[in-house]
Amino acid sequence: MTVNFAASALLPTPWGQFTIYGFEDVETGKEHVALALGDLAGDEPLLCRIHSECLTGDCLFSLRCDCGPQLQCAMERVGNAGRGLILYLRQEGRGIGLLNKIRAYALQDSGADTVEANVQLGFDPDSREYQICKPMLDFFKVKRVRIMTNNPLKVEALQEMGIDVTEIVPIHTGANPHNESYLSVKIMKLGHIKK
Q1: What are the residue boundaries of the structural domains of the chain, listed by start?
Q2: 128 is catalytic
Q3: Is 39 one of the annotated active-site residues of the chain?
């Protein structure tokens, strides 16, 4: 898998001044970004998050998921550490795309859980792929990470691509009445780490 680096620019945020890097997946044409803060070089494991795009949670403040709060928590942690990297991948709705995600939401409104809805639409419960992370991490010469995640599949994917995962840093941001069932399903059916 190959990515082309497009450009970088300063990105001031409430949690610090990041640098945003743009990448294009040569195969798919999808555009991904990385948010970097501080000196990424050295042998010390880098605090890192792989975050899949969630328009509804990240930008529209949906309470149906925990994506937006997780992204903000990761940025705050990196800001507090003074050093870290967030890979923001364009794979909406666990890889099914925005319109299918809305279709899945409609099925959930009728009683399906998040996994059942994806399957009813003809998709895997989680269609995301993480191979794109390898050339992005290679760009930054990152070999060892402390990964902020609750998802064991992300850890396995990093290890399979030769990245040394020295620590799993859970990223729980709290439940609300709109996402309690969703969070339970992620634990029960997708194997996510409990709080």
Answers
A1: 3-91+128-190
A2: yes
A3: no
